[in-house]
Amino acid sequence: MFFASDNCGPAHPAVMQAVMDANTGYQPSYGDEPLMDEVRSQLRKLFEAPEAAIYLVATGTAANALTLSTLSQPWQTLFCTPLSHIHTDECNAPEFFTGGAKLSLVGTSDKMTPADLTQAVEGWVLGDVHVSQRGAVSLTQATDKGHVYTPGELSALTSVAHSYGLPVHIDGARFSNAIAALGCSPAELSWKAGIDTLCFGGTKNGCMSVEAVIFFDPKHAWEFELRRKRGAQLFSKHRYLSAQMIGYLANDLWLENAKTANARTAHLANGMRVVHGFELLADPQANEIFANLPRCTHQRLQDAGAQYSLFGPLQGDNPDESLSMRLVCDWSITVDQIDQFVRIASGKD
Amino acid sequence: MFFASDNCGPAHPAVMQAVMDANTGYQPSYGDEPLMDEVRSQLRKLFEAPEAAIYLVATGTAANALTLSTLSQPWQTLFCTPLSHIHTDECNAPEFFTGGAKLSLVGTSDKMTPADLTQAVEGWVLGDVHVSQRGAVSLTQATDKGHVYTPGELSALTSVAHSYGLPVHIDGARFSNAIAALGCSPAELSWKAGIDTLCFGGTKNGCMSVEAVIFFDPKHAWEFELRRKRGAQLFSKHRYLSAQMIGYLANDLWLENAKTANARTAHLANGMRVVHGFELLADPQANEIFANLPRCTHQRLQDAGAQYSLFGPLQGDNPDESLSMRLVCDWSITVDQIDQFVRIASGKD
Amino acid sequence: MFFASDNCGPAHPAVMQAVMDANTGYQPSYGDEPLMDEVRSQLRKLFEAPEAAIYLVATGTAANALTLSTLSQPWQTLFCTPLSHIHTDECNAPEFFTGGAKLSLVGTSDKMTPADLTQAVEGWVLGDVHVSQRGAVSLTQATDKGHVYTPGELSALTSVAHSYGLPVHIDGARFSNAIAALGCSPAELSWKAGIDTLCFGGTKNGCMSVEAVIFFDPKHAWEFELRRKRGAQLFSKHRYLSAQMIGYLANDLWLENAKTANARTAHLANGMRVVHGFELLADPQANEIFANLPRCTHQRLQDAGAQYSLFGPLQGDNPDESLSMRLVCDWSITVDQIDQFVRIASGKD
Amino acid sequence: MFFASDNCGPAHPAVMQAVMDANTGYQPSYGDEPLMDEVRSQLRKLFEAPEAAIYLVATGTAANALTLSTLSQPWQTLFCTPLSHIHTDECNAPEFFTGGAKLSLVGTSDKMTPADLTQAVEGWVLGDVHVSQRGAVSLTQATDKGHVYTPGELSALTSVAHSYGLPVHIDGARFSNAIAALGCSPAELSWKAGIDTLCFGGTKNGCMSVEAVIFFDPKHAWEFELRRKRGAQLFSKHRYLSAQMIGYLANDLWLENAKTANARTAHLANGMRVVHGFELLADPQANEIFANLPRCTHQRLQDAGAQYSLFGPLQGDNPDESLSMRLVCDWSITVDQIDQFVRIASGKD
Hints:
The structure is a homotetramer. By secondary structure, the first copy, chain A, is of the alpha/beta class. Chain A folds into 2 domains: 13-252, 3-Layer(aba) Sandwich (Aspartate Aminotransferase, domain 2); 254-346, Aspartate Aminotransferase, domain 1 (Alpha-Beta Complex). Helices cover 39% and strands 16% of the residues of chain A. The first copy, chain A, is built from 13 helices and 11 strands. In chain A, α7 links the parallel β4 and β5. The longest helix of chain A has 20 residues, at 253-272. Chains in contact: A-B, A-C, A-D, B-C, B-D, C-D.
C-alpha cells in the first residue's frame, strides 16, 4: 500500500532491459553515442517537431532549472503558481541556475488563469529599470494538485505570455499523465498550444532517472549545452540516460504507464468515495488524490503499513478530526493493494 | 582498440546486477532508502572513518563543484594545478557552484609541490580586503597526466595547506587507480595524509554514473545536503546510485577494476616501448599514457580503427613528425586489443 | 512644488560644507581615514552601541543587498512585505548579492504583523532539504506607505524572528523620519527592540549619497568588508562618504531634517484635507502621503508644474474620476510651495 | 611627501565647485537630470563618438565589473594580464558580477602582446562544451606598472581579439594619464584602435568618485542599465556624479591634471636617478614609478614622513639591501614635496 510518491516505485522492466542492452562495448561519451541520435529522432517524431533541440538530464530539478535559466536573464522574474514545484520543492535551484532571477507567484491555486497571469505580468512595469523585468512563464502539467491544463487552456495562457514577448516552459514531470488524461497528442499539448520548451519527465513514470528537455525552437541549443555542462549535468557515460529513454519510448511505454497510473488513481478515488469521512479536496485528473479523512481512519491505515503523505498530526484527541492527505499511484501499484487500502479505510479489513 | 577514455567503456556486470537487484518494490526516495545506509556503512569501514559524512552524486563535475563550494566562500581563490580537470574541463562549473570563486593555478605541471603551493598561497596577501582570499586546495589523484601522489607527498602538501588554515580536497575520479598503483589503504591516501574531503570516483572505473563525496569531518554535512539539492543533484530514485556503489564496493570490485586497468596500461606501455618513434611524455603510473608517435604510425592506427586522443593534425606533409597522444585503459579493455594495437603500431599487422 | 521624491531634493548646505572641509591634502583611502573613525565613534554613541560594526556605502540598494547577503545563505528565503523596496524596486539586487536567495512575501500590506510573519516562516518546513530554508527578516522603517513601526511592534516581530533563530534587518532609508515621528531614541528603535542590523539612510534626508550599515553584533564585520569590496562599494576616496555622514550627524541634522520633512508633510496633508475629492489612503506618519484626487484636480496641478507620482492616466473622459497619487516632502520643501500646491488643488490659485 | 596612491589626494577645486553648483533645487533622479544629458553630450564629442552609450558609476571596480559582465557570459573566460587590477585587486568582483566567468592570465607582464593573447585564446579550444568559452579581452591603460599601450599596440591586440570575435575592454582608471603621455586623441586611443568599451576614470585624477563607462556600440545599453541597477550602482541623487564629470571635462581639466601628474612623476624620476642605489624597475611613462632603493634610504624617507608603497620589510640587518617601492604622483603633488623627497633620499636634508 505505497501511495507516498511516484518516486518510490521501481523502474519498469523494459527500461531496465534497455539499460542492460546498452551496456556492451565502447561508446562515445557525453551524448555523442548513436543511442542519443535515436532518442532525438524518436522524440522529434513523437512530438511532430523535426527541428526541436533535445537533451537528457537526470533530475527534474535539473531539467527545470537549466531550461528556465536558458530562457531567462538574472534580472527578470519568472511567473509560476504558488504551488509549483520550482517554488516549493527545489531549495532555490531556479534562483541559483538563473543567477538570481525572482519567482513571481501567479494566482492562488495550482492552475493559473489568463487573468491571473495578466495581472501578475502587469504588476512589473515595462521598461522600468528599477523593477524585476518580465521573464518566462512556467506551467506544471499535470499540476501539483493532480489537475491538467487542456490544450485550450494552455493556448489561452501562452497567448497572454506571447503578447508580452515571454516564453512558456512546462514542468512536465507528469506530462505523460496529462496526455493520458486528456487523450490528445504530445504536439497538441505542447508546441501546438504555444509551449516553447518542455521538460518531459521519465523518472516518476517508470525510469530510473532521466528527463528530456525539448526546445521546440532550437535557437537556444548551444547555450543550453554550455549551461548543462557548467551545471554538472552532462553525463560522461550518457548512454545510460539514452537507454532509459529508448526503453521508455518503445511501445509507448511512457503512455501505457501513465494510463495505468491514472486508471489506478481513479480506481482508488472511486473506492474511497464511500469511505466514511472521505472528502476529495480536488478532482483527481491524473495520478494524485488530495483528500481528507478522519484521524481514526488514518490511524487504522498507518497501523496497517499504508504509506502516503499525511498533512497534520496523527496523534490527537479528536478521532473524528479531518486530516488531509495525498495519495499518489505510480505505474506499478496493483489493484490488489488499492483494494486492500480501501478495505482498511472502510474498516472492513 | 578503444583507448579514448575510461568514460567510453561499459559498466561492470556486477554493478549492473546490483542495480537490477535494487529494482524491486517501493523504496524511500532521496537517499532515505536502506541501501544508502549500507553504502554509508561500507564506505566508512573501507576508509576507517566512522564519523565521515558520505553522499552520492552522479557526475564527477558535480562531485567536485559541490564539494569545493561547500569548502569555500565566493570571495576566495581555490588552488589547483593548471592541468586540473576543474580548471580545464568543467566549463566554469567550480566558479558557478562556488558563486564566483577564483582558481589560482599552482606550479606548471600536473603535480604541485609544497614549494609551488606555498608560493601560490603567499601570492594572495593575508588580511587584505582587496585581494581574493585564500581558499581550499584541490589535488587530483591520480593526476591528469596519469601520475600519483604518494601518502608522503600528500602529507607534505596538506601540511602546507593546513598551516594556512586551508582545507584540502581530492578530485578522485581515478582515486582507485592511485590506490592500485600505490598499494596503500584508502585511509592512508586520504585522511591519514591530511585530506579533508574526497570525491571517490565510480563512473570511470566500472559504474554507470556515481561518485561518492566523503567529508572526513562531518561539520559541513547539512550545508552539503542543501547545496546538493539546490544544485539539482539530489536524486529522487536515489536507490540506483546506491546500488551502483554497492556493486562497486562488493568483493573490492573498485580495486580489482583499477588494478586491471593499471596492469593493462603497463602492458600497453611496455609493448609500445619498442615501437619506432614512440616516446613517453610522462611515466604512466595509473591508467593513462601520454606519449609521442610519428604521424605515419598514427595514420596506420587510425586507419585500423584505433580510438584515442590525438593532439595535432593527422594530415600533414611530414610523415615522421612526432604527434602527441593520450591512451587510456579502462577495466574492460582486453589484452588482445592492446596487443593488436601494438602490432599495428609496430607495422606488424 | 516638488513632491516627486526625497531623492530629487538637494543636499543640505551643512553636509556640503563638511565635504568641502574634507577636501584638503592627502588622506588614507578605503575607509582608513581618521574621518571614518570619527563617524564610527559618533554613530556608536548615537546608537548607544559601543561594539557595533559600522560601514558606509553609497546607495540604499547597496546597503540593503550587501547587508542581507551577509545575514543570509543562498538557499534561504528572506521575509519581507510585498511592498518592500527590496522586492519592488531593486531589480533583483537582493537575489544577486545573496547568490540567489528567495524573497517570501509576508502579509499583504506595508507593515507585517507577528501573525503574518509566523505564518510565512511556518510555510517553509524546518529541516526539509527540498524547501527554501528560513532566513533573515527585513523590515522597512518608515514603511513604503509612510507608516512607522513602534518599538513595541518591532519587539513583537523580532521576538517571532528570534524564536526561529532568524536575524532582523531594517531598511532604514527613512529611519530618521521614523525617529522623528515616534520621538524615541535610535537605540530604542533598533537594537533595544531586537533589531540585528540597520541600514541608516542619509541620501533621502539631506546627503548626496551615503548610507550607514550598522551591525549591532560585530561578528559579521570581516565578511561584510569582503562583500563590500567584492560588491564594488568600497570607495577609494572614502573620505567623501565619511564627510557627508559627519555633516549629517553634526547638530543632529539627521533628526532636524527629518522633523522638518515630517512637519511639512503634516502641513500638506492638513491643507489638502479640505480639498474637494481628496481622500487619504493611508495615515501619513512620516514624510509620505498616499491619497486620491479627482482627475480634474490632477490636471490643474500638473498644468501648474507640480511634480509628484500619479498612478493612473491623466487623460480620460471622466474629470471626476479619482486617481491615486504619492506626495513626498523632503527636508528642503518650503511652506510656501506647499501652500501654493494646496491653493491650486483647491482651485483658489 | 605623499606618493602612496592617486587615491589619497584631494579632488580638484573645479570639480568641487561643479558639485556645489549642482546642489540647488529639485532635479530628476537616477540619471534623468539635465546635467547627465550634458555629460553624455560632452563625452560623445570628446571621443568623437556620437552614438556611444555613456553611464556613470562611482568606483573603478564597479565600472570594470559591470562592463565586463555586460560583455560576457558566465561560462566564458576573460583575458587579462596577471598584473591587471581586475585580477589582483578586486576581491573576485569580476567573477561575482559576471556570474562566475573565469579570468585567464595572458603573458607574464603588465602589457600583453598579440602573441601572448593569441596563445591564451588558443588555449581554450573553440566549440568544446567542456572548456571555458572564449570571452572578452581586458586591457589596462595606463597599465599597472605605469606603462602605456600606443594606438598601434592597441590595434594589434584588438585585431587579434576581433579575429576571434571577442570584444575588448579598457580599464582606464588612468586613461587620462595615457592620453597625456602619448599626446593622441581619446578617439585614437579607443574606438579608432578597435576598443569596444572604455572605463574612463575620474576618481584617481581629480574627482571624488566617478567613472564613466563608454560603450562605443550602444547595443548593450539597456542590459548595462539593468546590470547597473541590479548591481546597486544606479545613484538616486545622480546629479552629483554628473556634476563631478562636468567639472572634470570643463577646460580639459581631465587632461591638465593628467599632464601635471605625469610631469611631476618625470620630475621625481629624474631627481631620483642620481640617488645612490636607486634602480628603476620599469620605465615610468605615466604617473607611477616602480623602483628599488636601499633599506637605509627607505628608513630615512619613512622617518621623514614620506608615504609610499614599500614591498619588503623596513626592518632588516642589511642597510644596503635593495627593497622595491611604488611611487605615485597625483595631480596635486607639488614640486616642493618632490624635491624634498629627493633631497632626503639623497641624504642632503
